[in-house]
Each structure stands twice: as C-alpha cells, then as structure tokens.
Amino acid sequence: MAWNGAQWAARAPQASGLPTALVGRRAEREAIGGLLDAVRDGLSGALVLTGEPGIGKTRLLEYAADRAAEVRVVRLTPVEQETGLGFGALHRLLRPFLDRAALLPAPQRAALDAALGLASGLPADRYLVGLATLTLLSEVAADQPLLFLVDDAQWLDRESAEALAFTARRLHADSLGLIFAVRDGAGDKGLFDALSTRRVAGLAESEARTLLTSGTRRVDPAVADRIVVGTGGNPLALLELADALTAEQLSGVAPLPDPLPVGRLLEDHFQGLVRALPTATGTLLLLLAAAPSDDTGLMWRAAGRLGLSARAVEPAVAAGILGRGLPTAFRHPLIRSTVYAGAGAGERRRVHAALAAACDAVRDADRRAWHRAEAAEGVDDQVADDLEAASERARSRGGYSQQALFLSRAVDFTGAPDRRAERLLDAAQAHLMSGDAAAARTALDLAGADLRGPVLRIRELRIRATAQMFRIVVADVPAMLMDAVARLGPQDPGLTWELLREALHAALVAHDRVQGTSLAEVGAAVAAARPAPDTAAYGRDLLVEGLARRVAEGYEHGAPVLRTALGLLRDGHGTGRGTGDGNSPFAVMLSMACDDLWDVRAERELTDRLAAADRDAGALYALSITLLVAARCDLWDGRFTEAEVRYAEFDDIAADTGFPGGGDINRLHLFALTGREAELRAAARRTEQMTGMGHGVLHLLARHALTLFELGQGSYRQAARHAQAVFEADPPACGNLVLPLLVEAGVRTGDRAAAAAALVRLEERAPLAGTPWALGALALGRALTADGDDAEKSYRESVELLGQVPLALEQARSRLLFGEWLRRRKRRSDARTQLRAAYESFDAFGAVPYAERARTELLATGETARVRTEETRFVLTPRERQVAAMAAAGLTNVEIATRLFVTTSTVEFHMNKVFRKLGITSRRQIPRAIGEPGSDPGASRRRT
C-alpha cells in the first residue's frame, strides 16, 4: 500500500493522550521522587527537565502531580504569544496567594505590587520582586508543602522567569518545590542554567516497544523495531505515528512510508488534523492558541465577534486535539504552537483583531495594544503610539524586557526615521536594564541608519558604552564616552558631568589598557568640569574629581580633594539619595580613593553603609561589588573567614544577576594570603587573559597579590618583580599599598635603588594622606631602610600606628619584620615577643605563608611554636558562618533573612546546624563560639 499524505492528515488518533502508566523514565522518576520527599520533609528543591518536543516532559509533570500526596500542586503553562507581557505569568502563578502579600516586608510588598500593576510607584527592582515571590511562597508553604509545575517554561516572560529562577536558586528549607519543563531550541534565556537539570532523552528500545504496543494495538515486531528506531524513542512521535498508520501497515502487510516522516512528523500531523476539521473549528482553535489560557471570558467574547459558537469545539475534542475534561485546553502544548504557526497570516490577523476588540481598553490595555499590533499591517502611528504607551506602563512596573519588546514592536509601525531611532534607543536602554546586553546592541545597530543629530548620537554612544561595561569589555568605553562629551559641547553641563564620571570609572578600571584616549586625558577632562558645590551628590562628585586630579595632575593635587570628599561622605553630607548607584556601583571608585589614602576606617564605614543601602533597595549588582570591597577590608584585618563569606555571597549574586565578572579572580588576595598557590596563579593567568578586554587594573591587583604571596614565601626577587610593575603603573587601586612591599623586597634583594624609590614616594604621599595606615606604612618603610635605634623606633611606631585601625594583618606583618630585625641583632628575647605575636595572629587568620615564615624565625630564637588547634568556627560553611555572625551581632532571623535574600525558614535551618556543629544551645553563646566579640560582622573593630 502506497503512503498517502492526505490519508495521514485525515486520520484522527485512536487514543487521546498518553497512557496512565508511565513507561520507563526510572532516573527521572527517582529525581522527582527525591524532590517530593525533600519537600515533604521541610526542605526544598528545583528541577529543570529539558528535551525535544514530545519527548515526555509534560507526562513527567503529570507524574509528579500524581505522586504529590500531601503536597499542594500549582500548575502553570505559559503561552508563546504572551511572552512579551512582563510579569504576566508570575501574576497568574501568584494570584491565589496575593491575599497574603500584606505580610511581606514593606519594600518587597511595594516591589511586588508595582510589578503586578496592583499599585503605582517607582519601577520595581526585579530582584526585590524575586525576593517577594520567594517570601510569599515560603509563607504559603509553611501551611502546606507546595509544588509548582511549569510546562513550556521557555515561553515565560523574562521578568517572570527571572523571579522564578531567583526563587528556585534561593530555596533551602521552605517545603517548596519547582519543576520546569523547557523545550530544546526555544531559548530558556539561560536563567535556569544554575538549577539541577535533567535532559529527557528518547525511551530505551524495550521501553519504546512497550509503549508502542500498549492497549489493543497490534504491531508486528519488525515494524515495531523500525518505528522505534525511526522516532528515536520519542513517546509522542511513537503514539501519533502508530495512530496515523493503518492496521495493515502496523501488522506488516502493507509497507511503511520510506522514510518515516519523523522530522516534522508531529507538526505536520497536527496541522493535518486541523485542516481536516470544519472551518469554524479551525478558527476557534487558532483563537485558543492566540488567547491566554486562563482567560476563557476573553476568548469567548472574541469568539462571539468572529461568529463562533461553543459547539465548534466538539470536532476538535473528538479528534483528540482538545481535552475532554477541559474542552478549551489543548491535549499537548505542542499542538497549540503548531496550530498558531500553521495558520495563514491573514487568518492570524483576523483572530488578533477580535481579541483586541474583546479586551477591556483600561484593564487590559497592554494586551489590547499587543493584539492590535498583531492585527495591523504597514505603518500605523496609532498602533505604534499605543505600544509605546504600553512600554511606559511596563517600565513603571519594572518590566524592562517587556518595555523593550513593546518599543521594538512599535518601530515596525513607525514611519518617521527620527521616531524609529528614538524608540530603538529606548528599547536598547530597556534591554540593558533587563540585563540583555546582546539585545541592546542589536537595537542600537538597527537604529544606526536613522540616527540624526548630536542628541541621538550621544545617547547611542552612551548606551553602547554601558553595554560594553556590562560585558566587562572596557578598553574602548572611555573613548566612546569622551566622543559623546565632544558631541554634546557646552549645552548640558549636568549630562556632560555624568558622561565624564562614567568615562573616568571605565578608564580607572582599564588603566593602561585604555584605547582611543588615556587615563590622564580623561582625568584632565573630569577635573576641568568640576561640578557646583551645592549639588545633591557633592560628596560623591568631589571624590570623582579627586581621583581625576590624582591621575591627571599628580597625587599632591588629588589627595587633599579625596580627603575632603571622604570626610563629607562619612559625615553624611552631600550624598543626596545615598552613596549607592545600581547602574554604576560607587563602591569601585570609593575603594580606589580609600586605598589611595590608606583610609581603611572610611572604607569600612562607607562600605557598610553602602551594603546596607543596597540590601534595603534590593540592588544586588551594586551590592555584589560592595561585597568585594568589604572582603578586602576583612582581609587587611585578618578576618579571612568573613572575607570568604562575602566572596561566596558575591558568587550567589553573580549567578542571580548574570554578571560575568565572578569566579576566582575576585579571591586573588585571599589565595595569596592563605598560600593557595595553584589557585592564585590560575586566577592571575585569567587576569592576563582579561587585559585584552581592557582590565588593566585587575592585572595590577593580581601583581599586588602575587607580591604578598612571594614575600610570605621568602621569594624576594619574584616579589620585587611583581611589585615593580605595580609601582611603575601606580594605579590608585593598589599603587600606594605596594610601596612598603617594594621597600621590603628591595632591601632583601639588595636592590637599594628600588627600595629608595619606593620610600621616596612613601615620604611624599603618606603625610598627605595622614591616616594611621599611611603613617604606619611610612614608619615601616623607614625601619626597613634604617639601622640601629632609628630602625627600632620606626618599627615600634609602625606597630603602634597600625594597631589604631582595623589592620590586624598589617600590624602582624610589621611585628614579623620587627622580630626578624631583632633576631638578626641577636636580641632573641625581644624578637620572641614580636615573632610570637605575629605567628599567633597569622596562625589564627589562616595566613599560612606568613605563619610559616614567623614560625621558622621563632624557632631560630630557640622557642618552639605552638601546634595549631582547629577552631570550631572553621567547621561552618560560609553561609552558616554568615548567619552565625549576624546572629552574634543581635540580628533576628527575619532581619538576617532580609539581608541575605533568603527565607526565615532557611535561616532557621542554618541556625540549627550552627547550634549542632558548635555544640551550643543559646544564641548568646554564638559570639564566643565563633570568635566574635558580639559585634556586627561588617563593623570595624580594633585589633592589637
């Protein structure tokens, strides 16, 4: 019997849906069972199922629902045609629980209300929306364990996907499970990459045969083998092909089609089924495919406008396209997309026009604008204006990807070139706000031909520069922004200052890798554009000016300005809305200014303030950068475990935000001080690779870290080589911090010229800074190059000065050098005092190279160093240590959860583990158990 395509198209399936019993899938069933067991036990979990269409992902979600005894199951199936409606899927998911939103902390409640359009206000921060989602769902799960099943998750709007991915990554002890089914090749936006993922493949041959021969179907073994191989074990393809073949073909009497139509098998099959239905039924199916699945009222209103009756569903139910229990639901998600894709353009426009007419002009304004656009052809300014209005509403809710989508669609109906360009630039900016730099660059490229006049060109340059910074490719960013400044001229001083500030930020990061201009040129331009002293952000602006003068005019011109700026910021004057900026984290330049003045007090104080403001605002990207600065402060004070906690939190946030700057390159100094040589050198090599992207200062920071490591090892020549490179580049980030290290390396290698040059710079700059760290570093430099009483006096001065500020590590280094000097002068008793204090400090910190160096020196004095004992705090994980430290500072579980962007139940889970590991029974015992004096882990403290 010959194969007949029409015959294939006309046949209805003999069975509707998959069999009740799940065939095979042992590994998937075990993963689902493990997740459900965890949820019932009070824990949480997330699972992503990926695979080709028809492979069985939906069936596995059904299996999970069937096995979810004692668990409340909530299902969501997004619609491809509504991926542009920001927070739409999240609203549908949370709608049953919004009566509990009043229990959320105020910032979270405001963010969620704004995102869902329940209240007006500032645009919602998408990470606060994610935290609100997490908190709300965990509150609901406290009453009964929850399982969320999201089918076709690739069609989630980006904002909803971000909120759910954030929630899934932050789950721990919340009786909450999420399972996402994602179709291959449809693009899941990469948001679920960090979650546990299981690829669903075709069934094994024996399992596929079992499925194929299920029910009353009689299949010849040879025919079965060919079908199994031809479909790759795809369950839906197996069943639909078997239903479409004749009894003669299945029994082997008639030949099978050659080749088997598997490539577009399912789409062709379903389209054929639809074409065989009455015209009215086909139109109704298209309407169902284009309408939101949970708004049957809208669908039937549109159906009425098209003259369709409810009876039109009956042939589709009989054909197995729609389900019998819910006749407006497609039997399989693939059928919905196939119906929509297979319809003619004119028919789709007619259906969208009916949906637009059926939408409420106020309540459903965004959906109405979208359907009107789908129904329109050619230039239509009214449609474009409606889409732009919808984009503004999206922006007001914080739905930036939705804003970009509406604007991009508006461009299709815009006739005037300048308006097209403006809308594309707005779309590019919105893409950046949503974290999609690639889409932003595409929008900018499309706008290129229509950009006319300096204003649009300036906007384009600025957005391109921001996109480059997001990709951490910074070499040409300063030149791009300087070009924008030149185009702008004198007409807008405020905008000029913003552009220059961003250019300086990028130039400081790129340092000697700047292309198209130079750090000095950018600094000179910034210094010449000094802002008025009565501006709201004068303290911050003055710090920017100070850095500019430092790199353009010299340290003696920059340091006084920086001192004044830090004083203003510490006093809380002239900071406007605060010292944080979510788009361009202020912590970067703040860290450079503080390090350049050796001002660890200001750095610690202002960093704590920044971190608190960032946490309150849910500004995760800005917070992540602030955490890196705070970690450096921890290292200088010997608080290595606290630093590791901050690095771990940075990594968590980087995963949440998609920021590409994470990884071990941030731990360079921790690796150096703890003696983890292999990790240090691997991270340093990565910084070399990143210099091509313009990260000159990062490479110099790596050289500074290598200097510290080599000095700890006693490898003075290697230390001198690294330190000399930093000395010559003289970056604000570590150019001054390296000076006493270069003096030490120069003295130890006999390179008196290098030591003298470093000391001269110390003599010039330390008094201008005037901080205890600066003067202590100067005293140490003098001690290393002096003899006799002068050297001893300077060593003692250094130890005393460094003890005045939270610099326990630096003070221990000074004691080590003092003790070595005393031992070389045969003053063993005095040497033991300094070396013992240095060794015990290094040993407690975990500064292995320096502890070994101090131990060796101590042994040379005739004293045996104590054996290091393991402290209980080191059995805690970074997150447990973080929770314990906050509890030691007096924070409640609710306050800890808010600061860490987790749930209260997760904090309680970690606290229970802290109590068990430390062998304590009361929160009052925590400070002593972890070696904390009961103060906030972010607060500075004096160590002597």
Automatic annotation (TrEMBL):
Q: Which UniProt keywords apply?
A: ATP-binding, Nucleotide-binding
List the molecular function annotations (GO) for this entry.
adenylate cyclase activity; ATP binding; DNA binding
Q: Looking at the UniProt record for this protein, which Gene Ontology cellular component terms does it annotate, in alphabetical order?
A: cytoplasm
Q: Which GO terms describe its biological process?
A: regulation of DNA-templated transcription
Q: Which InterPro entries match?
A: AAA_16, P-loop_NTPase, Sig_transdc_resp-reg_C-effctor, Tscrpt_reg_LuxR_C, WH-like_DNA-bd_sf
Query: What domain of life is recorded for the organism?
Result: Bacteria
Give start and end of each HTH luxR-type domain: 869-934
Name the Pfam families for this protein: AAA_16 (PF13191), GerE (PF00196)
Put simply, this protein is called Helix-turn-helix transcriptional regulator
What's the source species for this entry?
A: Streptomyces fuscichromogenes
